[in-house]
Amino acid sequence: MHVTHPTYEQLVELPACVEQPVPTAFEDANGHLNVRHYVGIASEGLDESLIGQGIPKMWPAQGHACFSAEHHLTYLAELRTGDRMSARVRLLGRSERAAHALVYLLDESHQRLSFVMEEIFLHIDMETRRTAPWPEDVAAALDQRVEEDGRLPWEPDVSGSLHLR
User: Rounded CA gap, 114 and 65, in Å?
Assistant: First the structure.
């Protein structure tokens, strides 16, 4: 299956999260962002993007959390030390206890898409540490965001390997 990714110009229309340069500490022996940091930065971007849907960074203190369940990762262009980067998020869908998102890492220095992380994440009741239905207000906010993102004029570049259950 050939996947067509959105362009940099399309992606910069989405709100920017975790804008920062690639730090020297994240560099590997190849002189670029180490593979493990792509996922960490994308995950931080997803977390930051969900604040507006009622999921604060300190949600566990309120008895809730989001746990990652599945990922599909696509590396397209290296990010080198000092390159400016940002994360952009598109929500694709929600079920009773899960949500599906695409997180894009943009190389702002070279105006290109560097990395795509497709993720299924789950709502967790921290008392039981098991999946639980989304709180009503969060579910409504996620649904609204999914609807808004669904109106974007480009198709999501899903892997076909992740699905909401």
Answer: 28
CB atoms near residue 161 (< 10 Å): 10
pLDDT in tens, 38-86: 999 999 999 999 999 999 999 999 999 999 999 999 999 999 999 999 9
> Looking at the domain assignment, is residue 123 inside a domain?
yes
Strand 130-131 vs strand 98-107: parallel, antiparallel, or unpaired? unpaired
21 part of a folded domain: yes
Among 66, 61, 62, 125, which Cα is nearest to 91's? 66
Range of the domain at 57: 8-150
Does some domain include residue 159?
Answer: no
Has residue 62 been placed in a domain? yes
How many structural domains compose the chain?
Answer: 1
Q: With contact defined as beta carbons under 8 Å apart, do 61 and 115 qualify?
A: no
> Residues 126-165: pLDDT tens digits?
999 999 999 999 999 999 999 999 999 999 999 999 999 8
Q: What is the CATH number of the domain that holds 70?
A: 3.10.129.10
Q: Are the C-beta atoms of 71 and 39 separated by less than 8 Å? A: yes
Using an 8 Å Cβ cutoff, are 82 and 100 in contact?
A: no
